[in-house]
């Protein structure tokens, strides 16, 4: 589409544009909502509504041509989709925040308000209405299937894209108690309210805080310090520019965060810090259906070992297998997988659904419960063999199959292993005192 690029007023339109700048393209009588930095957060970013917004410049001829169709669009979509307009020549910071480089730019603010979609369709009211309704239909379908698309992140953020409730406000008074004395990992942003880069980071920081809180079970925290208010903290840690992000770990000097500024970059670094400092995952015996379901539902993969019967290995042999598994759980703890084991024969339905089939113990499988796919260890049950098996899985190699029946099977409730050697079942003693024996049976006369 033809657009007016950023420029000073073109010759010959200066007088007309000054009039338009004074009165704007739209009035209170129109169904188009005039947006500016003062109301944009409240009207758009904190809204659950779908918005389609035109960024225009009063001197732009293409924008002037669009005005009638834009008003018609707003009237047609009234009460269904919000239609707004931003004088991006007057409010350059708002246009710049969303990458507006020419006029008119039309953007659709859907579920994820921090990342609006560019509208690339025709400039007629019919084409714009059709695109808005198609986007609305997709939004509703996503909500029906439980995918929020990030809308929850946008509710409370001043910059859009993240819920600030999960960013901990740090001050001179609470910093030592919350950060230094906690023994946990913190990523702390030192910001200034007037800083443009800080405003751009705000929605990413807020969204990352929400994701990190959930994915690390609240073990890694994201905080923020207003360095213009708490200047003592900023000075203490040598903050010279904004935003400055520092990483705090127990017993170590803070280090500067050197990663990217998107939520994905921040989340990835936080998860690395979490796994570096986290204990290895717990290795659980499958005692009932809840243990299996929770582990396999909570993690991307659940790694399950079927160990030989205790009578075949004794406690020492079983513990040697469990030790191998715990070493592998430590080695792969960054993957945040679940780790389980059971005794051969205790969960026959599970073995059958995984094709283990009652022989070849110890055996190992890795299940993706979301896809109901599994892979079997073909190599040795050793650190080397299991490492090769899990390494291939982690990079998408290795053959997989569908769990028998397409669902996790029935799981028996069993008693936990007591850590001891097994005992052979005691056979019942028979009392022969009441049995009459004929001493002559079997004797032959000479």
UniProtKB/TrEMBL annotation:
It is found in: Endoplasmic reticulum lumen. Its main location: endoplasmic reticulum. Residues 1-15 form the signal peptide. CDD domains: P5_C, PDI_a_P5. Its EC number is 5.3.4.1. GO terms for cellular component: endoplasmic reticulum lumen. Residues 424-446 have a biased composition (Acidic residues). InterPro entries: PDI_thioredoxin-like_dom (IPR005788), Thioredox_PDIA6_C (IPR057305), Thioredoxin-like_sf (IPR036249), Thioredoxin_CS (IPR017937), Thioredoxin_domain (IPR013766). This is Protein disulfide-isomerase A6. It comes from Salmo trutta.
């Amino acid at each position: 589409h033809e657009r007016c690029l950023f420029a000073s007023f073109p010759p010959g339109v200066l007088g007309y544009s000054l009039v338009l700048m004074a009165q704007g393209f739209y009035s209170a009588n129109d169904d188009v909502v005039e947006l500016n930095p003062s109301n944009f957060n409240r009207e758009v970013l904190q809204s659950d509504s779908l918005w389609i917004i035109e960024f225009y410049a009063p001197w732009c001829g293409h924008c002037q041509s669009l005005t009638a169709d834009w008003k018609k669009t707003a009237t047609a979509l009234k009460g269904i989709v919000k239609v707004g307009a931003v004088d991006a020549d007057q409010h350059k910071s708002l246009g710049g925040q969303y990458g507006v480089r020419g006029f008119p730019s039309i953007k659709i603010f859907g579920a994820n308000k921090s990342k609006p979609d560019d509208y690339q369709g025709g400039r007629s009211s019919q084409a714009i209405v059709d695109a808005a309704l198609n986007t609305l239909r997709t939004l509703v379908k996503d909500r029906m299937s439980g995918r929020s698309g990030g809308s929850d992140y946008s509710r409370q953020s001043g910059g859009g894209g993240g819920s600030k409730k999960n960013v901990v406000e740090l001050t001179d008074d609470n910093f030592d108690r919350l950060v230094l004395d906690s023994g946990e990992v913190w990523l702390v942003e030192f910001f200034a309210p007037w800083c443009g880069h800080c405003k751009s980071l705000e929605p990413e920081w807020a969204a990352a805080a929400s994701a990190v809180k959930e994915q690390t079970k609240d073990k890694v925290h994201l905080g923020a310090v207003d360095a213009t208010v708490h200047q003592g903290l900023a000075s203490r840690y040598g903050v010279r520019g904004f935003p400055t992000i520092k990483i705090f770990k127990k017993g170590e000097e803070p280090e500067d965060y050197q990663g990217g500024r998107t939520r994905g970059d921040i989340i990835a670094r936080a998860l690395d810090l979490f796994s570096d400092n986290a204990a290895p995952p717990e290795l659980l015996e499958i005692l009932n259906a809840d243990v299996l379901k929770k582990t396999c539902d909570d993690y991307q993969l659940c790694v399950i070992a079927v160990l030989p019967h205790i009578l075949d290995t004794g406690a020492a042999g079983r513990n040697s297998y469990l030790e191998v598994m715990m070493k592998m759980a430590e080695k792969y703890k960054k993957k945040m997988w679940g780790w389980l084991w059971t005794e051969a024969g205790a969960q026959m339905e599970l073995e059958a659904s995984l094709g283990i089939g009652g022989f070849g113990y110890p055996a190992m499988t890795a299940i993706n419960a979301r896809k109901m796919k599994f892979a079997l260890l073909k190599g040795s049950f050793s650190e080397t063999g299991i490492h090769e098996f899990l390494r291939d899985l982690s990079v998408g190699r290795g053959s997989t199959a569908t769990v028998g029946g397409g669902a996790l099977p029935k799981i028996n409730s069993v008693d936990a292993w007591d850590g001891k050697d097994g005992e052979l079942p005691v056979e019942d003693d028979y009392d022969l005192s009441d049995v009459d024996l004929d001493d002559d049976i079997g004797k032959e006369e000479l």
